[in-house]
Amino acid sequence: MKYLFLALSSFLAITAQMIAGNNFFIFNFLDLSLILVSYYAVYRSRTQALFVGSLTGLLLDAAMGWPLGYNGFGRTLAAFIIGLSWKRLNTRESWVRFAIIAGASLASSASMLILFWIMQRAAGRLFIGASILQALVTSFITVVLFTAMETYRHNQANKSH
Length: 161
Known about the structure:
The chain is mainly alpha-helical.
């Protein structure tokens, strides 16, 4: 049942991303699936984050008509980087969180670029520029969301005491 919920949340994130991306320009540079992967890597199980990363990547590949596996590998790599870094580094500072998520997003994009290169497919400068902008926007929004969520949880814990 748990993995059915993970699959449903992955599907909803991809669907929301596609609908919002068509209607609002900023959502073209906000990666909701990476935010979802980050959430599971940080606050839940890293195994669940790997599952969500691979599933959202495969769903993205299917939705965009790419060969299956490009985004799946990239999202799984991002989940691994975020989970490992969050466990080993002091993530109390916002800039550390920003750097971890931005680095994971850039590693995901770099892995897709390498797969494009290996498979002899064209990926232009637009992909690189959009990947950098997407990493910055997604990292900023994710840090703000995580900080707000932790502040809310902290305030709720203080109210109950």
